[in-house]
Amino acid sequence: MAEKKDTQVKKVAIICAKGTIEDVYAALVMANGAVMEGMEAKLFFTFFGLDAITKKRMNKLHTATVGNPAMRMPGGLPFPSLLGMLPGVEAGVSSMMKKQMDALDVPPVDEFLDMITAGGGEIYACKLAVDMFKLEKKDLSDHVIDIITVGDFYSMAGGEGSQIIFT
Amino acid sequence: MAQKTIAGVNLEVTDEGFLVDSSQWNEDIAKELAKEESIELTEKHFEVLKFIRENAGDSLTIRKVGKSGIVDIKGFYELFPGGPLKLSSKIAGISKPTSCV
Fold first, then answer.
1. Is the CB of residue B38 less than 8 Å away from at least one CB of chain A?
2. Of A65, A76, A150, B30, whose CB is crowded by the most CB atoms within 10 A?
């Protein structure tokens, strides 16, 4: 019988293309978890994911209160979409989520980027999306190493035990 | 679970090498455990280990260590390369960290 042999994950290349709290944090938690385990981690932000590394927006991310069927009221009752449409509701819900994460020691986005890069993780921005949103390097977090093409990203994502993750 | 003799003491450790009973820990054991991870413990390491032992539990995170005033997160990675929270917990004789951050 063939012996089962697992190849260890040594490197993760994580792509974040959306700008809601939950999409961005999924990418950040996974990248941070990787460096915590001694793995190499590269994060590539594209399209609305760029919000997470745009200085003006990174700490103001929201979660969608409309069109989000998993949304619940405190206590677990379904969250009516009509309520989510009211002005201020999305901001309130988002701030509540951030408070709950802070209680679990999950930091704000800028501090999370500090943590990931302190552990050797690397942050990149997608050139196409940066051009599309008319951003410049100076608009982005100082942790962003470079603005690169998808080809550049693939070229640094290879190697034995490496995985590409799209959150 | 396994038995292991470290620094002349017979200890029970988990499959991953974490001490089962953290009260059996002492500095000599820490030095031996660190050696297995190719880390030579300095004064600074021991300060961090003390903090880790005092803050053992679900709420122990890299962020908390970074805010301890002893070492920043970058320094923490430098002291325990290749997995600071896990390695320092192992060397500090506490159980494997359960936090994801």
1. no
2. B30
Backbone Cα Rg of chain B: 13
Amino acid at A63: T
Largest CA distance in chain B: 36
Q: What interhelical angle do B84-91 and B43-54 show, nearest 10?
A: 90
Q: What is the pLDDT of residues B20-42, one digit of tens each?
A: 999 999 999 999 999 999 999 99
Tell me if A38 and B66 make a contact (CB, 8 A cut-off): no
Residues of chain B with C-beta less than 8 angstroms from the C-beta of A118 = 66, 72-74, 76-77
Tens-of-pLDDT digits for all 167 residues of chain A? 566 778 899 999 999 999 999 999 999 999 999 999 999 999 999 999 999 999 999 999 999 999 999 999 989 999 999 999 999 999 999 999 999 999 999 999 999 999 999 999 999 999 999 999 999 999 999 999 999 999 999 999 999 999 999 98
3-class secondary structure, B30: helix
Q: Where do the domains of chain B lie?
A: 2-91
Contact between B34 and B91 (Cβ < 8 Å): yes
User: Which residue of B16, B78, B90, B100 to mutate against A (max A Cβ within 10 Å)?
Assistant: B100
CATH code at A11-59+108-166: 3.40.1260.10
B54 is catalytic: no
What distance in Å separates residue A94's CA from the closest CA in chain B? Answer: 20
